[in-house]
């Protein structure tokens, strides 16, 4: 939805990826059948900066894939010098929410990705900041018993609305949900009668959120579309 020339220009005028993310980006493109599922440089930088802006104590990610977005957000919780210099971060043992500890919980359904995700979390020095869960998000998340400051949804599209309905009551007032792929390669504007289940899932999610009086939302045509949702 944006020309390759403009995309390259945008990346050239964005702070470079930290080395750990640059390596992960390359490894993902070499090893995965669908590497485009990776958040990537521009989106990863946006997620990191948003974390730095709102300083969340509890972050939930639904859909880890190879770990790029989790690492990007985790680095946003770490010290900027460590991030920019590509060094491992030095983090204290996480503390309970009431004592100021910050944690990112990320849920991935594919157990074959677990080893690689844990390795890159360690490479980034974020073992004390990121908690990985392997399994079905709809089963795992209710058991976490957290109040979320930020939720990032980037998982199976037919369940987007189910994830939203499940997490919104547990997002603090003023907290955020970010949903990826909300433009779904432009398919959301197609003939509803010809939409596949993934496209229908995204369209139903977009329409429900847009009409939900509990939130305000902004749809950004960044990459494959990001919706930023703020709980009122």
Secondary-structure blueprint:
Elements: H1 4-12, H2 19-31, H3 40-54, E1 58-62, H4 68-76, H5 80-85, E2 103-108, H6 114-123, E3 130-134, H7 137-140, E4 148-153, H8 160-167, E5 171-180, H9 197-211, E6 215-220, E7 226-231
Helix pairs in contact: 3-4
Q: In a nutshell, what does this entry contain?
A:
With 232 residues, this protein is of the alpha/beta class.
How is the biggest beta sheet arranged? Answer: 7 strands, mixed
Number of helices: 9
* Gyration radius, in Å: 17 Å
What fraction of the residues are assigned to beta strands by DSSP?
A: 15-25%
Question: Might you state the CATH topology name?
Answer: Rossmann fold
Top CATH class: Alpha Beta
Share of helix, binned: 25-40%
Q: Choose one word for the global shape.
A: globular
CATH architecture: 3-Layer(aba) Sandwich
Could you list the spans in which at least 5 consecutive residues all have pLDDT below 50? 81-100
Q: Looking across the biggest beta sheet, what order are the strands in?
A: 3-2-1-4-5-7-6
Order of helices and strands: HHHEHHEHEHEHEHEE
Number of strands: 7
Task: Walk me through this protein's architecture.
Helix content is 38%, strand content 19%. The chain has helices spanning 4-12, 19-31, 40-54, 68-76, 80-85, 114-123, 137-140, 160-167, 197-211; strands at residues 58-62, 103-108, 130-134, 148-153, 171-180, 215-220, 226-231. It has a 7-stranded mixed β-sheet, sandwiched between helices. The chain has one domain (4-231): Rossmann fold (3-Layer(aba) Sandwich). It contains 9 helices and 7 strands; from the N terminus they run αααβααβαβαβαβαββ. The protein has 232 residues and is an alpha/beta fold.
């Amino acid at each position: 939805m944006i020309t390759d020339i403009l995309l390259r220009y945008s990346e050239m005028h964005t702070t470079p990826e930290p080395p750990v993310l640059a390596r992960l980006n390359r490894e993902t493109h070499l090893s995965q059948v669908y590497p485009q599922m990776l958040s990537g440089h521009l989106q990863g930088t946006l997620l990191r900066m948003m974390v730095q802006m709102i300083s969340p104590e509890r972050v939930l990610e639904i859909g880890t894939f190879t770990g790029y977005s989790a690492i990007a957000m985790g680095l946003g919780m770490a010290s900027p010098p460590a991030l920019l210099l590509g060094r491992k971060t030095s983090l204290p043992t996480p503390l309970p929410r009431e004592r100021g500890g910050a944690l990112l919980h990320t849920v991935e359904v594919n157990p074959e990705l677990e080893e690689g995700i844990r390795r890159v979390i360690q490479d980034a020095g974020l073992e004390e900041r990121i908690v990985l869960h392997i399994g079905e998000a709809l089963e795992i998340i209710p058991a976490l018993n957290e109040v979320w400051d930020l939720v990032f949804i980037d998982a199976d599209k037919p369940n987007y609305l189910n994830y939203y309905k499940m997490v919104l009551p547990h997002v603090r007032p003023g907290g955020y949900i970010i949903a990826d792929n909300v433009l779904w390669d432009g398919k959301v504007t197609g003939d509803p009668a010809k939409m596949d289940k993934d496209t229908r899932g995204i369209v139903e999610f977009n329409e429900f959120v847009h009409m939900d009086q509990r939130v305000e939302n902004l749809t950004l045509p960044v990459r494959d579309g990001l919706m930023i949702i703020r709980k009122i």
